[in-house]
Amino acid sequence: MNTDSTSSEDEYNPSNRQGNLRTARKSTTGSQSQSRSSSSSSRRQAAKRASKAISASASSTSTSTSSFEKTMETFNPDLSQREKRKIIKKFQPPVVTTTRKPLGAVYDEYGTHMSTNINMCDCLDIKCAGCFFECPKCGSEKCGKECRVHRNYIIDCMEYHGREKIVKNPLLRK
């Protein structure tokens, strides 16, 4: 036997070869082509079976309408409950929950000063219509950094940095 030529027996049994230090490997050229053809034929058969099943179910449903088709015929997105809730939520003002007034609260549940009944902005200008962004809690544009609903402190003055201007709260003078 010639040591230079490799036979299939030498590939499976590397200990038979003296000088070559190759690792054993299995020849898969014949088995790969067989497995590919068998897997592709089984895939083809499965695809044929699936297409036959689909065509059979389509022919049976074409005579009678399915429940899904009936639902889609009667579906109107304008009357759907979900759409109604979305529209109502968008256009309704935020709901102010009625909670018990905490001890020491200076403002009531609407954000007005309790002792004077004046709804003054946090910029301390009585005529201001609201110069802050809309409050996420109550929806008012007169709340500063913190919501005025049941707030237990009152702002006594505002200092403007960069200018020597201090605005005092007109409610404290009364």
UniProtKB/TrEMBL annotation:
Domain ARF7 effector protein C-terminal stretches: 69-159
Low complexity bias (residue ranges): 26-44, 52-67
Chain positions covered by the region annotation Disordered: 1-81
The organism's place on the tree of life at top rank: Eukaryota
InterPro entries for this protein: ARF7EP_C
Pfam families: ARF7EP_C
PANTHER family listed in its UniProt record: ARF7 EFFECTOR PROTEIN C-TERMINAL DOMAIN-CONTAINING PROTEIN, ARL14 EFFECTOR PROTEIN
Protein name: ARF7 effector protein C-terminal domain-containing protein
Provenance organism: Ceutorhynchus assimilis (cabbage seed weevil)
